[in-house]
Amino acid sequence: MKARIDFHIHSCLSPCASLDMAPRTIVARAKAAGIDCLALTDHSCTENLPAFHDACVEIGIDCLYGLEASSAEEVHVLCLFDDLEQAMTFGSMVYNHLPDRPVDPKLFGDQPVVTVDEEILRLVPRLLNTGTDISFFDLVPMALDAGALCIPSHIDRETCGAVSHLGFLPDLPYDAVEVVGTIDSDIARRWPVVRFSDSHYPEQIACRFTEIETESFTVPALRAAFNDLLLK
Amino acid sequence: MKTNELKFDGLDCVQPASSDSEITGGYTSDLLSDVMAHLKEGEALLTIQAHKNTVAVATLMGAPAIIFCHGRIATADVLEAAAKENIAVFISANSQFETTCRFAKALGI
């Protein structure tokens, strides 16, 4: 089947995202925009995935469970799972590698863990949009070993992308790379190029998406589908 | 040295601090997690990371001034956040290295 996917969306848990990004709002917007499968990818934390899962079941849409992990070099990497428990375990490991220092939400923004009905369960104390102490070169194999699709985020951005912070894209077995601007053909021949919205506000959902031909939305099926995106 | 007395070649003050505070030294880094771990209160932050999170990190750590190096532009939201936190904002046309050298000279370090 042909499918439109948007695998880079932040909820209200990410301090830089709007508090309007409640799980049900995100899922309903994605469905209305014609997305067939979406992923929630908060910064280095998976605590809003259970509410996201509930919203996807309620609204009836396929989903992946993800996070946008930040390496020690502050390079962002999308880690996407087809299993909620696996995602939660990996997410909690990544969170524990963030600086252990509570920060004032007034400075960086609130980090609420919510239910599908938008009840606030708690506020996450560690700052989420900063680097962990895991090197990019370790983070990628860790994500792949944990069963995730591993996609460096916005590799062509000036901040928090692999090229801007590492100088070049290291030759590692990513499942795809996320690009925002023009595609570099050398990169597009080496790795599948995908475009996602990186939504922080409801109106950004599906502003960029990727169309794929896939049998299903499991990690192995998506890996195979991504390979068809390689520039020949 | 007071934030509003800081002057050297290639440095432009794009937003003075509303109340003058003391700069005791500087910390040069483009990794905000590194800044969060090592900048000491009173030190100015020298960086090319010209976005709002830089102001938040500077506030958290008690930096009285931020110098955006290599001609990076400070956007209106950055200046607004800095004004709220009484942080002086400068832009230096020069690289982090050159700016750091000139800054250290200005401070007499």
Q: Which structural category do the helix and sheet elements of chain B fall into?
A: alpha/beta
Q: How much beta of chain B, percentage-wise?
A: 15-25%
Whole-number total of structural domains of chain B: 1
- The number of helical elements of chain A comes to 8
3D architecture notes:
The complex is a heterodimer of chains A (232) and B (109). With 232 residues, chain A is α/β, with parallel strands linked by helices. Helix content of chain A is 29%, strand content 20%. Chain A has one domain: Alpha-Beta Barrel (TIM Barrel), CATH 3.20.20. Chain A contains eight helices and ten strands. In chain A, helix 1 packs across helix 2. The radius of gyration of chain A is 16 Å and the shape is globular. Chain B is α/β, with parallel strands linked by helices and 109 residues long. Chain B has a single domain, classed as Udp-n-acetylmuramoylalanyl-d-glutamate--2,6- Diaminopimelate Ligase, Chain: A, domain 1. Chain B is 35% helix and 21% strand. In chain B, 38% of the residues are buried. The model of chain B has no long low-confidence stretch (mean pLDDT 95).
Summarize the structure.
Chain A is an alpha/beta fold and 232 residues long. Chain A has a single domain, classed as Alpha-Beta Barrel (TIM Barrel).
List the SSEs and their pairings.
The complex is a heterodimer of chains A (232) and B (109).
Chain A: E1 2-6, H1 23-32, E2 37-43, H2 49-59, E3 62-70, E4 76-81, H3 84-95, H4 105-108, E5 112-114, E6 120-123, H5 136-145, E7 149-152, H6 162-166, E8 177-178, H7 185-190, E9 193-194, E10 210-213, H8 219-227
Parallel strand pairs in A: 1-2, 2-3, 8-9
Antiparallel strand pairs in A: 1-10, 3-4, 4-7, 5-6
Helix pairs in contact in A: 1-2
Chain B: E1 11-15, E2 25-28, H1 32-38, E3 43-47, H2 52-61, E4 65-68, H3 76-84, E5 88-92, H4 96-107
Parallel strand pairs in B: 2-3, 3-4, 4-5
Antiparallel strand pairs in B: 1-5
Helix pairs in contact in B: 2-3
